[in-house]
């Protein structure tokens, strides 16, 4: 019997940042029961080539304020999303896919570093140099990561993640799924507090113990 916890997310999704403390607790709960985490990148805003329009920027920042108020997660609102910023989440997603393929244990840590750098520190995590620095921080050799990040294989692997999520009909993040022997159970599509999700996950884990 094979089981895993599937977290479909995007490192540049504000509600995923809001969900980060909850996700960490659920991942620990799952791993304590012997069920590993599998990260899938959803691709929130990919292929963006133009800088944000002022109206879009205001809309996004309204979401950030809502996430901050609902979850208490820190945001750096001062000078956020500066003029000329291209909000393309593909590079950040590809960084996580690259980390996952180099050293799976580092991928989850890299998600947190990218989120913190973008939302709490105001850094531009669409830049390869920033992503390589963050990857090095979680234990991946910078040069090896940079070469893998630019490879065709990791471009395609990232697109495969996006397609997998899209084919399942997942349009919103965070989405958490529990998989046992190929059967998927939806734990949440969207933010929910730990008090709602921990008992739900525990019931699913308990059924696995007695299966």
From TrEMBL:
InterPro entries, alphabetized: DSBA-like_thioredoxin_dom, Thioredoxin-like_sf
GO molecular function, one term: oxidoreductase activity
DSBA-like thioredoxin domain boundaries: 8-194
The protein, known as: DsbA family protein
Species name: Pseudomonas nitroreducens
């Amino acid at each position: 019997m094979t089981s895993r916890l599937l977290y479909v997310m995007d490192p540049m999704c504000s509600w995923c940042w809001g969900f980060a403390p909850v996700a960490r607790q659920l991942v620990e709960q799952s791993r304590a029961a012997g069920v590993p985490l599998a990260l899938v990148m959803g691709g929130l805003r990919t292929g963006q080539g133009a800088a944000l329009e002022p109206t879009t920027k205001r809309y996004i920042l309204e979401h950030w304020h809502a996430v901050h108020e609902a979850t208490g997660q820190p945001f750096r609102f001062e000078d956020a999303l500066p003029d000329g910023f291209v909000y393309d989440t593909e590079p950040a997603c590809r960084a996580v896919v690259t980390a996952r393929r180099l050293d799976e244990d580092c991928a989850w840590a890299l998600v947190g570093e990218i989120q913190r750098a973008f939302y709490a520190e105001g850094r531009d995590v669409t830049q390869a140099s920033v992503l390589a620095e963050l990857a090095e921080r979680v234990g991946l050799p910078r040069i090896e990561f940079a070469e893998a990040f630019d490879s065709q294989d990791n471009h395609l692997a990232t697109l495969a993640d996006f397609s997998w999520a899209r084919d399942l009909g997942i349009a919103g993040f965070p989405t958490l799924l529990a998989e046992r022997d190929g059967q998927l159970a939806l734990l949440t599509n969207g933010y929910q507090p730990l008090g709602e999700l921990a008992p739900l996950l525990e019931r699913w884990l308990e059924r696995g113990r007695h299966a």
